[in-house]
Predict the structure.
Amino acid sequence: MKLKSRRKLVNYVNILDQPVRFNPFLFSRAFFLWALLGIMGGLIAGIYWIVLEIVIGILGQFEGWLVIPTMAFSGFLAGLIIHFIGDPGEISLIVNNIRFNKGKLDPKRNPSMILSSLLCVGSGGSLGPEAPLVQVTGSTGTWLGKVFRLKGEELRSMSIAGMAAGFTALFGAPLGGSLFALEILHHKHIVQYYKAITPALVSSLFSYMVFAIIISLGLGAIWEVPVYEYEGLFDFGLAVLYGIIAAAIGWYFIYFTRGFKKLFEWKPLPIYLKMLIGGILLGCISFVFPITRYFSHHEVNELLNTPFTLSMLLAILFFKITAISITVTSGWRGGFIIPMFFVGATLGLIINELFPDINASLAIICCMAAINSTVTRTPMSTTILIATLTGFTYLIPILFASLTGYFLAPKIPFIKSQLKEEKEE
């Protein structure tokens, strides 16, 4: 039976390999492959999101001082999963595999990534589901490419398209998600991977459509940033100024995180003990500052709609950065893009508290864009993502801030695999 099934699959692949006849358009059978990948990515993202909300609903009931043992136990349990099932890796490994492993992402890492990230994100870690989704949907692209006997750049493009499907499902921005999947590989390699942009866009659109249907996601902004009114050319200068300030905070975050990394690596410990310690520290921060708990998808609106004092905003900024750093370095799984947007929004509110007469919306938006560009080196996609998530229709100030953060980023990137210039296979 297995041999017959394999023969049927080979015959089906051979049919797809045949040239398209009587087709005067660019439209081809490859479109169906990209669309299929997007549908699969949307289904995966939708199911993951539903399960994540269930986990958050269960673990989120433990509040007050109970958040400390809850997060400690969750970290310990996630560490045991990684210890016994295998290390799923982080975003650096994904970038490395796309660039130096013929574009292949290993699906065998998915069970460990899914289970550990659900516990880490669901219990309140300061990392989001974007990295787990990108690993799973990207590896799905690799698997699908292998099924249809794709090789070389075609296989790499399928992996990138899968990554784009994961990004898009979470952010709800097909164009931004597609560009992010290429841009995070490192700016020097965007041109090299330009062939993947169309597969990524098609996959992203279908992923977004399926994900939106599953979770009843509507069109429009999800973060309620104050309305912006253009006040003249001076706004562009302010955008650059906010970008400089946010880049400085980005530098602080990067080197602060490296300090925590050295601390956790000072004495070799099993992953489950490191994650247990990380959970205790994160629980203590969440107990004192509840708004720093979780990956900030919903907390951004809480931050924007609550009249915090200047001293409280400064405390939130410091402890959110600390929480992200601990989450990253203690082995907890997840992505740091949305948490960095939260940090940028907090910084913008602080600037507005110091200078009440400025346009608060411009300060918030520019700080969000610049700090993420400083950390991830993705100015183009960051601009589109911020505009989509906030409904901010003036792209130029965001782009000014994003490019400022990008060009002022430290030479050694936060995602170290972006630096490597090894010979690609």
